[in-house]
Task: structure prediction
Amino acid sequence: MADVPLQAGLDVDPWVAAGIVAGAASGSFLVEEEVRGLFQGHRSGVADALERVGWWYGTPLFTVPASLLTLAGGALFDDDDVRDTGLLMSGVLLSVLFVQQPVRIAVGRARPSAGEGHLSFEPFTFDNSRASFISGHTWSAFGISNVVARQVDRPWASVGLYSLATITALSRLYADQHWLTDVVLGAVAGYAIGTALWHEQQDTDDGNMVAGVDAAPVRHWLVVRFRI
Result:
């Protein structure tokens, strides 16, 4: 079992990074109603099409098969890089399942489409209309784009992958399914988890990633533990 701090790969002091994230979240929270009005007031056929692209890129209907097929392809052709990419993608999706989903249930924030405003919370509910915080589509999109871009290590791939992740984030606002804070923190969480997973993979001597992930606090860090 190996431990890797969640701040792995960041080039700034973790407290500074935490402050930046907190500031971004706070700023987003203050302008959520205005941002919603902006997105809902500008509809078009092109925007509708891009919304569908973003939805598909972040949905488990795409991400789960894509991860499993990548993993299977790497195993079938004995390609360690492809196999590790599939495992990294799977690790991101496991973080959505075991972290994002429980947070969503615990917070119970009303979606914008519910018409209850951005201050409406009903903790510990399974009602999908109260599944706004955090955006799972955005978490998955940024996490997967991060790890695949690092694995491919080509500028064109990074531009394409992060463009898709950004379209996914914006699509959730356009579809009136999430508030701005939900999307901002989803992007941060996905990127951070992807970075931690990738650095752990790089530090593994035999190059083998793992099939499970959990989290535990160690001093003031959140540590991700990987287990075969």
About this structure: Helices lie at 14-30, 32-40, 45-58, 60-76, 80-107, 136-152, 155-174, 180-203. The first helix runs from residue 14 to 30. The chain has one domain: 2-227.
